[in-house]
Write a structure and sequence with these properties.
It is a single chain. This protein has 383 residues and is α/β, with parallel strands linked by helices. 28% of the residues lie in helices and 25% in strands. It contains twelve helices and 20 strands. It has helices at residues 40-43, 69-81, 96-112, 121-124, 153-163, 179-186, 201-210, 231-237, 255-265, 315-324, 329-336, 338-343, and strands spanning 2-9, 15-23, 26-32, 45-49, 51-53, 58-59, 62-63, 84-87, 128-130, 167-172, 191-194, 214-215, 243-247, 270-273, 285-289, 292-297, 300-302, 361-365, 370-375, 378-382. Strands 3-2-1-4-18-19-20 form a seven-stranded mixed β-sheet. A hairpin with a 5-residue loop joins strand 1 and strand 2. Helix 3 (96-112) packs parallel to helix 5 (153-163), helix 7 (201-210) crosses helix 8 (231-237) and helix 10 runs antiparallel to helix 11 (329-336). The chain starts with a strand and ends with a strand.
């Protein structure tokens, strides 16, 4: 049994002096106390839930679409070392056979592979985000247009069979032929996310009515939020229960728009994501995303034509950037912990510090310098 004392980010989404007690892989209690009961060192540290990135493609020189056990181990290890204790990596727009192979390797790896300190890969890698191929060619962004196809429910079920149930979120452009029916028929098996789309307000509302419950990287790869044409942003904002992802890397979205998104959707519906690609954690150079060449210069990753190709930062840095942009600290932490856990259905065990939760815990200083990462009760990083 271990007790961790400091300024705790509680399940009520606020910071309070307290003690988190861990026994084995679980939190047994979270008790509040007065700051006077803490030592000076303890008053100088935050105790946070482990972060959860539900949408990113790679890091540390590896891409999830490499489709190898080695890549999945390296990606999970890098994320864990940066305070991201649960991940849901994303595929790209690829042919079905390639996607099925990636899904199958992932399903086998989470059940067989172990990271350092004896941490099971499956404790970190919690699902798959299918980003493509059911997207709009006009709003494809860094996706390969050669493999874009119409939504196909049967294909989805084939991929889910290969993934052994690991696919949690499916990106879809609701204006494409067959999209609404695909959402309706698959809403019990998948969480559909409006993405890479030209959909107008009315079409987005139909998609939400059919069962879509998330928006992929809000503002990016979709029509703008305009006063006469509110588009996907307006439709999602007024629809309770629909979450919206935000990339806070300092490049994808202006700080003013980040602050506005939190006000528009509320702190309970924003999910911070990194959308990182393999260049995250690496030096400037030449990389790839979904089979397309990417150049990273000064932390900015782009295709040859200048199109943004994901980010090159991790979620912990995105959270800190959101705070620097003026997002209230409590809201930024929630958007990187509890909200993403809820978005992929694991909030019953991850995303908050409370009795019965998995002991996924971060210890940081008051400037969010990472001191310790605890995964399922095991110290994975100790600075």
């Amino acid at each position: 049994m271990r007790q961790i004392k400091g300024i705790v980010y509680t399940e009520w989404f606020r910071f309070e002096a307290g003690v988190v007690t861990v026994d084995g892989g679980s939190i047994t209690s979270v008790e509040l106390c007065g700051e006077a009961e803490l030592t000076e060192e303890q008053r100088g540290q935050y105790i946070l839930p482990g972060l959860i990135d539900i949408h990113f493609h790679g890091c540390a020189g590896y891409d999830f679409c490499d489709g190898t056990t080695n890549a999945m181990r390296a990606i999970a290890s890098y994320e864990l070392s940066h305070g991201v204790t649960s991940i849901c990596p994303a595929t790209m727009t690829l042919q079905e056979e390639t996607l099925a192979g990636i899904c199958a390797v992932c399903a086998d790896a989470v059940n067989a592979e172990t990271l350092s300190h004896g941490i099971p890969l499956g404790d970190v890698l919690r699902g798959i985000y299918l980003e493509g191929p059911f997207i709009s060619e006009e709003k494809r962004g860094a996706q390969n247009p050669a493999y874009i196809r119409k939504p196909d429910s049967e294909m989805l079920m084939r991929l889910q069979h290969a993934a052994k149930g690991l696919i949690r979120i499916v990106a879809i452009a609701p204006e494409t032929e067959g999209a609404l029916e695909c959402i309706r028929s698959g809403r019990k098996d998948f969480r559909f996310s409006i993405a890479h789309t030209c959909a107008d307000y009315e079409t987005a509302k139909k998609a939400i009515g059919a069962g879509a419950c998330n928006v992929t990287h809000l503002f990016n790869a979709m029509p703008p939020f305009a006063h006469r044409e509110p588009g996907v942003v307006g439709a999602a904002a007024e629809s309770e229960g629909v979450t919206a992802e935000l990339i806070c890397d300092g490049y994808h979205i202006h700080p003013g728009m980040v602050r506005s998104a939190f006000r528009l959707f509320g702190a309970d519906r924003i999910v911070l994501i990194s959308d990182s690609m393999m260049a995250a954690g690496m030096e400037d150079g030449e990389y790839a995303l979904g089979g397309q060449p990417v150049r990273m210069r000064g932390g900015l990753a782009t295709l040859a034509d200048g199109t943004l190709a994901g980010s090159a930062v991790n979620l912990f840095d995105c959270m800190k950037t959101a705070i620097l942009m003026g997002v209230p600290t409590e809201d930024a932490v929630r958007a990187a912990t509890y909200n993403p856990a809820a978005a992929i259905g694991i909030d019953g065990e991850c995303g908050s510090l409370r009795a019965g939760s998995r002991a996924d815990i971060l210890v940081t200083d008051r400037e969010f310098g990472l001191r310790e990462v605890i995964k399922s009760g095991i110290t994975a990083v100790n600075q």
